[in-house]
Structure formats: structure tokens, C-alpha cells
Amino acid sequence: MKKYNFNAGPSILPQYTLDKTCKAVKELDNIGLSVLEISHRSKEFQKIVDDAVALVKEILKVPENYNVLFLGGGASLQFSMVPYNLLGDNQTASYLETGAWAQKAIKEAKLFGNVNVVASSSDKNFTYIPKNFKVPEDSAYFHVTTNNTIFGSELLEDLDSKVPLIADMSSDIFSRPVDVSKYALIYAGAQKNLGPAGVTLVILNPDILGKIERKIPSMLDYKIHIKNNSLYNTPPVFAIYASFMTLQWLKEQGGLEEMEKKNIAKAKLLYDEIERNSMFCGTVEKDSRSRMNVCFLPTKPELEQEFIKFATEKGMVGIKGHRSVGGFRASIYNAMDIEGVQALVDCMKEFEKQHA
Amino acid sequence: MKKYNFNAGPSILPQYTLDKTCKAVKELDNIGLSVLEISHRSKEFQKIVDDAVALVKEILKVPENYNVLFLGGGASLQFSMVPYNLLGDNQTASYLETGAWAQKAIKEAKLFGNVNVVASSSDKNFTYIPKNFKVPEDSAYFHVTTNNTIFGSELLEDLDSKVPLIADMSSDIFSRPVDVSKYALIYAGAQKNLGPAGVTLVILNPDILGKIERKIPSMLDYKIHIKNNSLYNTPPVFAIYASFMTLQWLKEQGGLEEMEKKNIAKAKLLYDEIERNSMFCGTVEKDSRSRMNVCFLPTKPELEQEFIKFATEKGMVGIKGHRSVGGFRASIYNAMDIEGVQALVDCMKEFEKQHA
């Protein structure tokens, strides 16, 4: 039976990425070695990194002077690296509190300086993205989480900011065009729209660095990674290779304009069904809904387990909602095509027929 | 033409690991999903982590109360994590300086407290492991690098230490039995004897933690990773899976006693040829020679490039020595069988016939 992978992350990847990486694990480009066995100092891997960086720059239209890094440690390590490099002991950083990951980022920043939460949607269990907040102009930076994987909300606008704007885009990067020049630093764990878990993409304007006094461990120092083109230490070779394959696929698919069109259509199909279907209701305010993670609840709570069982039998994987929200969550990243979303919608319709 | 992979790391992996991971990238255990797409909170992945931890404990005979972690960020991140967690601002840690990686570990430790280098072999370009040094009993810990990948020396003895003994075993873990109970903490980047780059194995006695006053970023806090069984954040799922496959292979091969026998035989074959062959000479003192990384120089320096070209044409990969030593380096990790070493020896003999 065909499986439809709605996992929140690690999550569905393009078949292209799976086919290419499988082949490269067997043998990389007829060099007689597996991609798992090549030296990170080999010309083969240098070309992979260089080409992957070039594709990130091309696809996201990254400004010329920005750096693109592939680092280990996950986005969770960035929660610490950002303030380690950018927040002086006596400075204040502003954060927008839109969910659990934003809260984790805030927690780490507090180890290094002061944190000013400019707005929070915690009053309504993060079911909306706050608006009309004011970021103090003396903030060291302003940090946002563009997509809240757990709560299913998304900040679809590139904000104007008078202080360096920093974004955790782990779960929506590459899902739509972004004006990278408005951001001082973007980071994203790969395991949603890019590749397997184990590598984190960092895009930054190097002008923001070197402005505070603090001894920084080498592995947490952006300047060192920039100087070494992501090769200060042995990088996660395989995860970078797989990400490179997804970048190739993204380009072949028509890039981010095309991705955005498909993602809008997929999200509309699913949200429309949630609104129409008497068995389900959405959790997030309409103008804050995520195109990546669609959260919804059963109108009859006693049928929650029943729907999960029903959907699982039809091949749906990973639709159980996060415990912070309950109900259901369908993550419909780039690699999920509209047929997959239609399969879920069909499943919801059939469930309604049986239980309404 | 068959390739013989003598890369220093990332390096040769068992064919078993390559076959199994290739299959799992296509589909993991008939679950309809690739190993790259499964949730790190899925029962499938939980079993992979649990089984991998159990195999590490079994193969290395890890004491019951120790923790086994799979972390991201590489051994280079451990250079900072160790002092971050264990070295108070006014305390002193002792380090044995046996090569470039030990030096990097020392550099990071200096950010957190005082460092006492108990002995160094830098006077002779790290061609030996110092002996008869004294570790002050008030050291917060004593750090050693058991195998020096770049310089080809190895500390084959499990030292007795009155202070917590910490070892970077990145390039010789699983190559021989080790008395883990003598160590307070062992860490090892996977990309030599375990798996692909992107995951680091940490084995530690939790009793050493919580003894200093310092705010530690969550991702750098061993206590947090222990509490979450390596799943505090999204771990490098694929790299852990591949490592698990190598652990299965290790066990099937007869474990560490068998590995040590094979590694002794392989190293003897190659070092004997280096001693016999008029074209080559070793770089490391006999009692400090590494069984993993065999460094040797041409007796006629003008033939260095010629031998690399000659060996490359015969399928040898990665035998160029590190720039700090020059000449040649053959890394003969667990997955390199004696036939591969014999192929290199044959190549050296043939080269001698042509040039002596």
C-alpha cells in the first residue's frame, strides 16, 4: 500500500533525493567509493559543497555579500549560537514568541544577555501570529520563527526591521520566495524542506559579526565557519549531499515561485475541507495559518483515535497532532504533492460519511 | 578497477553498512518509508537508537551506570563541551599534547579555565607518545587523544588516573578492547570506525557532571542529552542508523578481540614492509605507532609525487600524507581488510623494483 508521509520532521523528501542518495551510498558518480566514504577534503566533496552553496544562493536569490553555511548540531544549536555571537552581556535582543521553538530560542538567549519579548500569542495557545508590535531600536537583533511546526501558524511576510532581523525558517524555508536581503541571518534545520536530519543551513550577512566582546568556542563562532567555508571540522557529508540533491530538484521544479503556487493550492485544498467537513475544525486563525503544518481537531473528541486509526489504515503516516495541540497535524512540505493531500481529503470525506 | 580506500576520515566502511544503509534509504524494513523520512519520535527510530546504545554497551563492555549518547556537531564540538561541563573558571584541567587534535582541544579548554599540559611531543613533531608524566591530583580532569590521526601515533594503554580520565577516541574506538571503567568520558566522531560523518558517540559516567557552577547552553549540556536519551533535539537519524549497522557488523565479526587481532596483523604487515623497503621509512617511534594511521616518508623525497601517482593508478585512494607530516599515510581502519593492506604492500614492492 502506498504510504503518504505527513510527518512533521524528519519528513517526506522528493523521490529524486531518495533515488540519488541511494545510488550515491552505493557509489558516488562512478568514482569507486560510496558518498559515505569520501574525504571531506576531496575534490569531489568540495564540488558538492560549492555547488550546493551556489544553488542555495541562486534559488533564494541570496545577496552577493552574504555567506551560506552548512553546519552540524541542528537548529537547536543555533538558538545558542545566535546570542553567543550577537548578544552582548548588557544588550537586549527582541524575540517574537509564537510557539514552542521560539520559547526555546528565548530560553537560550537569556543565558547571554537580556531578552525582550515584543509580543506573544501564548495567551491563545499560539493560534495566531501577533501583529502591531514594536521592536525597540536599541535591540541587538529581532528574532522571529517564521513557521511554527507544532502549532501550525506561519509568518508569511518578510518584516521590515530597523535592527538585524534573524529568522528560524526550519520548517518553511524553500516553500516560497523570501526577500533574503531583509534578514541579517536565517537558519534552518534541514529535516523538513531540504534533506535528512543532521545538517543546518545558515545564511548570514557577515557585517553583523564581530560587534560584541565575548570569547566564543570555535565550533560556535560563525566567523570561523565562514573563514573555512563550512569545512572547519568534518561536516555532515551525507546530509549535505542529500540536501544538494533536493536543491537540484527544487530548481528543476521551477524554483520557489512554482513551489509557492503548489503549496498555496495544497494548503487551500486541505483547509477548505477542514472548514467544510462537519467532523473537523481548524485550530489557527485564518490569516495566520501555516501552509506547511495544518493542525485540526475532531469536532467530536471521542472520535480522535478512531480517525487516526482510519487514516493510518488508508496509508496516512504521521497525522497525529503534537501533544501541545492534540487532534491532527498534516505536514505538507514541498515534497508532498497534491495527490497526497487529496488522498487525505478523501479520507476525511469518507470518515464524515461513516460518522456524521 | 577495485579501489582501496585509505582515507583518514571520512573513511572506508564495511560493505555490510553500505548495503544496509542503501537499502534503508530506499525503504526501511518494509515500512513504506525511507530511513531519511522517518520521525525521530517514531517507534522505528526509538528502536534503532535503543538497539544501537545496547550494542555499544555490549561491544565495549560499558559499565552499567554509564550513559551512551549519539550527538551532532562532531568531536570538535566535544572539545568545547568537555570543559563547558567539567572545568570551573578557577580550576585546572590537564591535557596530554600528542598532536593537532589535542592542541585544538587544549585551545577550546582555555576559554573556560586553566590548562596544564602535562607532557607534549611537539618537540619532535608528535612522532611519539610521551611517557612518565605526572598529572596533578587537583586537576578537574585529564584529557588524552588515544590516536593521533594526523601524526600516526597511538596510546594503546588504558592509563590509570586519579582524576577523571577523558579520551578523544575518534580514530581508534572499536579497534581494540578498552577498559571503559578507567575513563570518565570517551568521545568519538563516527567517521572512522563507526559510520558516516555527522554523529559523535559519547560514553560517560554521569557522576562527573553537575560539579561546577556555570550556565550551559542546552545543546552543550550533557545532563540534558542524558535526560532525553540523545533525543533532546532532532538527532542525525541517518548517521545513527548507519552506525548501528556497523555495530551489528562488528558483533558479527567477533567483536573487539577479533578486531584487535586483525588490526595488529594489518599494521604489522604494513610496518614490516616500510622497514624492509629501501624506498620508504616510518615517521613514528616504534612503541608509539598507530595501528589505524600508518605514516611513512619516501627515502628519496623527489619520488613522493611519483609514488602517489603510481599507487593511485593501482587503485589506492587517500594515501597522500597530511601536510603536517608529508609523505604518505595509509589509514587502515576496521573495515579495511588485510587484502587491501597486501595490495598496498605489493604496490610498494613493485615501486621499489622500478626505482631502487
What does this entry look like structurally?
The structure is a homodimer of 356-residue chains. By secondary structure, the first copy, chain A, is of the alpha/beta class. Chain A folds into 2 domains: 4-12 and 254-355, Aspartate Aminotransferase, domain 1; 15-252, Type I PLP-dependent aspartate aminotransferase-like (Major domain) (Aspartate Aminotransferase, domain 2). In chain A, 35% of the residues lie in helices and 16% in strands. A 7-stranded mixed β-sheet of chain A has the order 2-10-9-8-5-3-4, with helices on both faces. In chain A, strands 11-12-14 form a 3-stranded antiparallel β-sheet. In chain A, β3 (92-97), α4 and β4 form a beta-alpha-beta unit. In chain A, α7 (255-276) runs parallel beside α9 (338-355). The first copy, chain A, is globular. Chains A and B meet through α1, α3, α4 and α6 of A and α1, α3, α4 and α6 of B.
